[in-house]
Amino acid sequence: MSSASKNWTADKPDRWAETLGLVGVPLFGPDRAGAEGGVHTLLLDGDRGSFILSVCDVDAPDEMSPLFSWCWSSNVTFGAVVRPRTRFVTLHRWDARDSLRRFTIEHERSARTLFDKLASTSQPKSPSAVQRLISVFRSLRRALLPSVEPARIVRVFNTFLLGADAVRRGTVAKREWLGCTSLDELLAILAAKQVISANENVGGTVASNSFMVQDFADVFLEPDPITGCRLDANLLMRHASGLLYQEAHLELEKPIQVQGRLFGIPSGRPEKGAAKPDARFTAPPLARLLAEQALKIHLELVNKKPGDKISVLDPACGSGVFLVEAWRELNALNRRFAIRLVGYDQSSIACEMANFCAKSAVDAETAEIEVERRDSLGDAKWEAADVILMNPPFTFWNDMSEPERLTVKSILDPFCHDHADKALAFIHRAVLTLKPGAVLACVAPAPLLESKAGFLWRQYIANEPSLSLRLIGCFRGFNYFRGAVVEPAFLVIARHHEAATKSESCVQVILAKDGFEDQAIRQVRRDPTGAEGDSPDWSVFKADALEFAPPSWLPRSRESTKRLRALAHKGHPRIDDLFRVKLGIRTGYDKALVLKRGELKRLGLPPNEMRWFRPAASNATIRSGRLLDSLCVFYPYAEAGVCAFSSHAELKASVPAYYEKVLSIHEDALKARRSLRNRHWWELVEPRTTWQCSLYPKIVSTYFGQRGSFAFDDKGRFAVTQGFGWVWRKTEPERFAASLLPWAYLSILNSRVFHSLLAHYCPTVRGGQYDLSVRFVRDVPLPDLTDATKVTGQAITELFEYGRTIATGEFPSLDALDRAVCRVYGLPFEDWIVGEA
């Protein structure tokens, strides 16, 4: 038997947490922990892997009914019962009461195998406690609106939860609740038993006999009719309130659909229509990770003793998830710090929820809680906390009001550049608030890591001696934050007491593909240095701080970094050294100015009018490396770059049919384009006449794309609209087009090898495509095929043949293509293609 097996103890929750990379928190508060028999720990992961570990002598089916309800109420699927001083585990799930499974967990490997099975098992089809209560919240909202403001609806819902817990504790008798005929009566009972404050303004205008509070009693006091589980409000408030209230907040933002009542309660079905895209609400696993890392770094920088104060601030607190997770981490340290939790939010609903969630989850005697409604970007100073945790609003510049833009500019001055996101203003203000030894951990939009708008700020962080980047992560994809329109990243920045030697510091890097975020988070706890190696789906390791220079903080996997270093040694030029990458046309109103070929045919325009239309190269017409002549753009410009029609009369005389059938119909909309910049109303907003008027050959790309998103316009006929034109720098475009080079480059750009390079330099947009903007692709290494010292004529000929094949609509063998591309890059095929296909 190995030493690991000998040391393994299945009845120790700490060993499970350490082995699996989970966080163990007591299931019950101190007032209840000794009353339930045994030791019960909630081992927290993500949505699927969390479970309750109960070390007790209970494992008979008829004795486990409370354990099912504990899992259901805590919003976890599984529970595991371990008999003390044994390795025997009984596994159960609340939706399968008759299906108990028993295992012998002899060593850590067995524990990991069991956990992997749990995390991959299908989720219950029956409604969870959170889903059930969200349905109740919808019903309550419909019963109270429009006479009651949303924050007060939240307060009523809170009161029901507190009342249900009071009934469980025996403070209030069940018959007392059922005997109430109005909310006022229930409030009076709860106030008399000191469950709520006697002067708390909860009901307001809803305190009437018509509001039948006993209609909701079955939900809060009786077993769920579908699952058979009984709501344990105390556990729900301690462990699932963050998720519950995030969902409730979204419900309050939906338009209400008034419906009939079901059994006395308005229908709890979801409102029609989805909530607006939103990335405000942080998944608890990520909040937990950031709280852990920030507090760990703070305690490394500041020597704190038991009794010393630690303050935590969340200036965009939402439902309070960061505050709760920070308290859990500090409480687990068992250092008896004086903990202060502070939250700010502009929303009264958020403040109501955050205050309730924090006070419900946090043991009152261990922490001071203060939640304040305020504009965090206003004039008032933030509390100088030891740790700042936040998920700031991701509001784009174009979506902000003019006063909001002025506020962002004033906060970022002198680092405001281009179109800054509101999130950057929050993050910069947090950095300015950091005192020596304090740490900021925050969620951020991934484009912030390499955008022009964030460059001056990143440069400031790099040049400020007292600041250091300690952690950077990125989750690829858009599913981790529901409704997010940009990929999420996260940062930890510390301010030192003395200037840090940044060249000697390391940065913790965390990367994960869509769907593998929780595995990466677990790996950070198990192996923060990355000694165990990476998975194809996530990467966790320590990197030199010098690798994160101001031009880009975008983290790359360990293997990707090795590949790029190897590529750098080959001395290839950048795309910007070989091509001028030009942004395409912006019409400002495609409906009238970009038409399908079929539409033009139906209009019956004569040849003298058709001469003012050019085929369009765009997201819609670049397909699998080919250009499709299926869209046309109205391009009324002479070769000199000036509009061919200087007056309204000249326009009507030159294109009478198009004017009558299209332009005149859309004239008002065309005139209303705000960015027309004193052009005639029939012109394009951005015609790009400096390079689009001349008809010369060019490579074209879509605006957002991936492999297959590059094509060659060999005659120069196409006008680039939604995309980019790549113009060869080294010789005249005509000479370039007459050679083998454009077709050879077409092969490279549409290969998997180049696709993998785009992943290192370009951010991903929703749909999995890359942003192919100039600022991202300009630095991608690309072989100079005119350099005979590095590229043979045979290699160019081979790529030329593949390029011509692609242009005909057929794709060559991907392996054969990639091998040829690897040869011109000068790197082994096996080093690049593994994991990239």
Explained architecture:
The protein is an alpha+beta fold and 837 residues long. Helix content is 38%, strand content 17%. The strands form seven sheets. A nine-stranded mixed β-sheet has the order 11-10-9-12-13-15-14-16-17, sandwiched between helices. Helix 24 crosses helix 25. About 1% of the residues have low confidence.
Number of strands: 29
Q: Strand portion, in percent?
A: 15-25%
Span of the ends, CA to CA: 41 Å
The helix count comes to 34
Main sheet specs: 9 strands, mixed
What is the residue-averaged pLDDT?
87
What is the CA-atom radius of gyration, in angstroms?
31 Å
Residue stretches low in confidence (pLDDT < 50, at least 5 long) are 260-264, 273-279
Quickly give the structural class. Answer: alpha+beta
Q: What topology, given as strand order, has the largest sheet?
A: 11-10-9-12-13-15-14-16-17
The rough form would be described as: globular
Question: Helix fraction?
Answer: 25-40%
Annotation keywords:
nine-stranded mixed β-sheet; 29 strands; single chain; globular; alpha+beta; six-stranded mixed β-sheet; about 15% strand; about 850 residues
Q: Secondary-structure map with pairings?
A:
Elements lengths: L2 H5 L5 H8 L2 E4 L12 E6 L6 E5 L9 H10 L3 E5 L5 E6 L7 E4 L3 H13 L8 H16 L5 H20 L4 H5 L4 H10 L24 H5 L11 H7 L1 H12 L8 E2 L2 E2 L17 H18 L7 E6 L6 H13 L4 E8 L2 H14 L5 E7 L13 E4 L11 H11 L9 H12 L5 E7 L9 H9 L3 E9 L12 E8 L10 E7 L4 H10 L11 E7 L13 H12 L5 H4 E5 L6 H4 E3 H7 L3 H4 L2 E5 L4 E2 L2 E2 L3 E4 L13 H7 L1 H8 L3 H5 L17 H4 L5 E5 L1 E2 L4 E4 L5 E2 L2 E6 L4 H6 L2 H9 L2 H10 L8 E2 L2 H4 L15 H15 L6 H12 L3 H5 L4
Parallel strand pairs: 3-4, 9-10, 9-12, 10-11, 12-13, 14-16, 20-27
Antiparallel strand pairs: 1-2, 2-3, 4-5, 5-6, 7-8, 13-15, 14-15, 16-17, 18-28, 19-23, 20-23, 21-22, 24-26, 24-28, 25-29
Helix pairs in contact: 5-11, 6-14, 11-14, 12-13, 15-16, 24-25, 29-32, 32-33
